[in-house]
Amino acid sequence: MNRALPFVFLLALNAPAFGQTVDGQGAVQLSENLSHYVGKQAIDKGVLKVSVEGGAYKIVFDFKALAGALPDQKLLKFDFAPYALLVKPRSDGSWDVSMDFSQSASFEFNGPEGLQSTQFSIKDGKGSGVYDPNLAAFTSATSSMAGMTMTSKDAKQHVDVSAGAGTATIAATKSATGGVDFTTSQKISSFVEAIDFDDPESGLKFPVTVRSPELSVEASGKGVRTKPLLDLLAFAVANEDETTLKANQAQLKSLLLAALPLWERIDGTYGFKDFKVESPVGNFGAAQLSTAFGTDGVAQNGKITYGIKASGLTVPQELLPSWSVALLPTDIDLNFGGANIDLDSMAKKAIEAFDLNQDPPLPADFGDKLTADFMAKTPKVVIGHSSVKNNDMEIALEGEMTFPGEKPDANLTVDVAGFDKIVESLQTAAKSEPEVAQYVPVALMVKGFGKTLPDGRMEWVVNAKADGSVTVNGVMLKPADPAVDDSVDEDDSSGEDDSGGEGAILKP
Fold this sequence. Notes:
Blueprint: H1 5-8, H2 24-38, H3 40-44, E1 48-53, E2 56-61, H4 63-69, E3 75-79, E4 83-89, E5 95-100, E6 103-111, E7 114-123, E8 126-132, E9 137-145, E10 147-153, E11 157-163, E12 166-174, E13 180-199, E14 204-224, H5 226-238, H6 242-247, H7 249-259, E15 265-279, E16 282-296, E17 302-311, E18 331-341, H8 343-353, H9 366-376, E19 380-389, E20 394-402, E21 409-417, H10 419-432, H11 439-449, E22 451-452, E23 458-464, E24 470-472, E25 475-478
Antiparallel strand pairs: 1-2, 2-4, 3-6, 4-5, 5-8, 6-7, 7-10, 8-9, 9-12, 10-11, 11-13, 12-13, 13-14, 14-15, 15-16, 16-17, 17-18, 18-19, 19-20, 20-21, 21-23, 22-23, 23-24, 24-25
Helix pairs in contact: 5-7, 8-9, 10-11
C-alpha cells in the first residue's frame, strides 16, 4: 500500500500535458488541478507541494504534515519521510512519471489493545510509467524493490514481515464499452511472516511462521469507470460542508449514476510456491497454494466467484489418528460464489430515494423493501465444480441454492471415485480402532443411496426443497414438513417426490 499511495495523487493529473512548458506558472496550475482532488487545505498546509526540478514537476506528499492536520489524533510518534514524484508532460498529452519509494518509517499510537507500534522499510524502491489523463490510468508502468521489512507490536501480538526483491507491472487501455481495461502482475521473493501471539491474561502463547520463496499477484479489470470515480472524488472535496452537500445532492445523484456499474468485471489471484506454515503443533505445507476472487460490477445479473486451490498438501500426521492418514487429501480445488445478483436495481433505487435533507436520508422501511426486491430476483449461492483428492480417491461436488421463500431450495451433486477404498480403510481401521467402527455402517448406508456410473464412480444427486423435503437420486429421504395452517389437510401437504431433475453434471 505504501508503494501505491503516491500514485493515487496522479489521478489528479487530469489536464492533458500537450503543449505545456515546465515552468513556475505550470507548477501553479498543476497545484490548482491537484487541489480539486485533495482539497485546498492540503496545499495550504504543505501536505502536497508542487515545484519545478530539472525539466519536470516535482510533487511531494508530506505524511508528517498530513498527520499534524488530522483532528483528535492519537499518534504518539510519527516518523515518515515524504514521497516525491517527478512528472513530465509528453507531446501526446500524457505524462511521464517516475519516483523513488524507498522508505524507512515508524509510528506509535494508542489502539484498542493499548500501545501499538509499527516500523517498516523499503529498500531501493523505484517506479516509472506513462499516465494518460484521458483514461485516468497508467497505460504502462513498472516498479521494483530490493526488499522490505515490517514489524508491528501490541500488548498481545508481535508480527515480523520480510520480503526480498519484487517487481510489478500494470497496463491499461480504453475499454470498448467505456472506462478502462487493465492488467497488473506482481512477484515478490522470499516472503516470511512471523506472528508471535502472547496473551498475558490467558497465558496462551502460539508462534506461527508463514514462508514462501515466491508470492505472486495477478489481476485484471474490464470497464473500470476511472473518470466518473474521479468526478465523485472532486465533488466530495468541493462539498465537504454539510449545507453545500445538501444543496448539491441532485448533482451527487447524477454523478453516482454516471459512475455505475463502477466496473464490468474484476478478477485477481494470489499465489504461493512451496507454502509452509511452521507452528508448535507441527508444519503444514503446499507445493502450490492460490486463492482467486472475481466480481462483476453493479449489474442486474451479477456474479461473484471465489476459489481456493492447493496441491502437494502436507499436515503434521502426529496430530491425526493413524487410520485417517490414508484419507488425507493431497490436492483441493474449491470454487463457490453467487449468481443472479441484482445490485443495479438496488443502487439506482437507493440513489433515487435518498434525501440528505431528511433524517434519516432513506425511509425507515426502505431497507426491508430493497431486501424483498433483491430476494425476488432469486439470487443463487453457487458451488462450482470442486474436488478433494489423493492418490486413491476423489470427491467432486457442485450445486446451487436459491431462496424462493425464507427456506432454501438446494441441488447438490456429489461424485466419488474410490469410494470402496474409503470403506475398506474404515473397515481395516475398525479392527484396531474401536471408535472407527461407528463410521462403517454410515458409509455403507451412504453407498446404498448412491448410483454407480459407467466409469465406476458413485454419484449422489441431492435435492432439498423449501418445503423441507429431501430426495437422493430421486428417492424420497425426507417428506415435506407438515403444514403450519391447521386448516390445511396434512395428507395434502405431506410433500411430493420432486427430485428437481438430475442435478449438475460433473466432469470425471
